[in-house]
């Protein structure tokens, strides 16, 4: 663990023990406000001190097992234990970094987010890839017990989606998914390809945090063109019977948002305006990011077509994250929603970069 973090942990540990001692001495005190304050501070520090204690125990276990490597009979067992300890220890270190360094805290990380997936180059294959990628994220969200709200789907005439917008609701949603923005590329042999040639298709993903009311950009109603139309796609008897679907065009930026998920036109309009506000805000943030450190910008994708972050190679059954040169040969698992093996390493790299810049 970094020297800076260890130094701060020792300070927090001393503070924790000092508060603990005061609470023990002042149990019969009439100064209720002071006891209340000390109890609150003690509770705030409890989690990080517990993690620090676990880390110290693991450090000792690691040292003891390292000594056992010299014993031929115990070598293999000790090596397996060392590998397991490293995994747990690294996870605890990452949790500690987030808690100790205020620079790592992003107030928006705990928010819900909009996940927008659009087809790129590749025609039919790109549209199919969009539908597959959207299912991958839906399965990942379900594994996290997050709620998924489908805002809009633009179906493709030959299968798949030209675009899908999801609202994902739950704990630390944006914090987990914010690094998914950018260009995602797929390489495979399409079912319709008779010559066995590998095709390359792309889709573009943008992840945007849900905005608070006070953060909403001021949008002049005169800058909006609002169209109503009949909903299309799967939806039972209600489909194509009422003009409940909404299309909003923001004239200054050319941003177009559609929503046909609800039967109520007013609800669809509210959802579309919420997505529009997040898109406008995302453009503002992207401009600000141009002035930030190169490493940080490379990890936090912009959602632009040219910002390629990941390749899914079906021939080799691998996924490669180009930002950190990570390749994993578990394509099937990843497409089934096992995304933490890709997301956690990029989050760790992001935190490491910030730590090194302090």
CATH fold name of the largest domain = Alpha-Beta Plaits
Low-confidence stretches: 234-241, 293-297
Q: What is the overall pLDDT average?
A: 85
Named at the architecture level, the CATH assignment of the largest domain is 2-Layer Sandwich
For the report, how would you describe the main beta sheet? 8 strands, mixed
Strand numbers in spatial order across the main sheet: 2-3-1-5-4-9-10-11
Helix percent reads 40-55%
Q: Given the structure, what is the number of helices?
A: 9
Beta content:
15-25%
The CATH class name of the largest domain reads Alpha Beta
How many DSSP-defined strands? 11
SS content category: alpha+beta
* Termini Cα gap: 15 Å
Instruction: Work out the radius of gyration.
Output: 25 Å
Number of domains: 2
What's the order of the H and E elements? HHHEHEEHEEEEEHHEEEHH
Shape: flat
Tell me about this structure.
The protein has helices at residues 3-25, 32-68, 75-100, 124-143, 173-177, 265-289, 294-299, 331-335, 340-357, and strands at 113-119, 147-155, 161-169, 182-188, 199-209, 224-229, 245-250, 255-259, 308-313, 318-321, 326-328. An eight-stranded mixed β-sheet has the order 2-3-1-5-4-9-10-11, sandwiched between helices. The two termini are 15 Å apart. Helix 1 packs across helix 2 (32-68) and helix 2 (32-68) runs antiparallel to helix 3. The protein is flat, with a radius of gyration of 25 Å. A hairpin with a 4-residue loop joins strand 10 and strand 11 (326-328). Mean pLDDT is 85; it is low at 234-241 and 293-297. 46% of the residues lie in helices and 20% in strands. The chain is an alpha+beta fold and 358 residues long. It folds into two domains: 3-100; 107-357, 2-Layer Sandwich (Alpha-Beta Plaits). It is built from nine helices and eleven strands.
């Amino acid at each position: 663990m970094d020297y800076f973090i260890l130094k701060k942990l020792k300070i927090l540990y001393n503070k924790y023990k000092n508060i603990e001692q005061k609470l023990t001495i002042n149990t019969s005190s009439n100064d209720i406000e002071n006891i209340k304050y000390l109890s609150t501070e003690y509770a705030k520090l409890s989690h990080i001190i517990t993690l620090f204690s676990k880390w110290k125990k693991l450090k000792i276990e690691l040292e003891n097992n390292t000594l056992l490597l010299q014993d031929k009979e115990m070598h293999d067992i000790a090596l397996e234990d060392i590998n397991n300890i490293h995994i747990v220890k690294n996870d605890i270190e990452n949790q500690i970094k987030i808690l100790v360094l205020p620079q790592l805290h992003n107030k928006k990380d705990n928010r819900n987010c909009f996940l927008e997936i659009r087809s790129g180059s590749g025609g039919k294959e790109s549209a199919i890839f969009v539908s597959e990628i959207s299912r991958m994220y839906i399965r990942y969200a379900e594994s996290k017990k997050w709620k998924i709200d489908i805002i809009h789907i633009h179906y493709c005439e030959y299968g798949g989606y030209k675009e899908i917008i999801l609202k994902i609701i739950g704990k630390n949603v944006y914090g987990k998914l914010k690094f998914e923005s950018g260009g995602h590329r797929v390489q495979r042999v399409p079912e319709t390809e008779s010559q066995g040639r590998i095709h390359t298709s792309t889709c573009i993903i943008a992840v945007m945090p849900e905005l608070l009311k006070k953060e909403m950009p001021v949008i002049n109603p005169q800058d909006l063109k609002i169209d109503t139309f009949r909903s299309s796609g799967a939806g039972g008897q209600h489909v194509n019977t009422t003009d409940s679907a909404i299309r909003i065009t923001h004239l200054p930026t050319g941003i177009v948002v559609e929503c046909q998920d609800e039967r109520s036109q007013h609800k669809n309009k509210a959802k579309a305006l919420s997505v529009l506000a997040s898109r406008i805000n995302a453009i503002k943030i992207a401009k600000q990011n141009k002035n930030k450190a190169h490493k940080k910008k490379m990890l936090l994708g912009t959602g632009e077509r040219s910002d390629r972050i990941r390749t899914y190679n079906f021939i080799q059954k691998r996924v490669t994250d180009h930002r950190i040169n990570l390749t994993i040969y578990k394509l099937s698992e990843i497409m089934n929603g096992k995304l933490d093996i890709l997301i956690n390493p990029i989050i760790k790299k992001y935190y490491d970069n910030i730590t090194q810049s302090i």
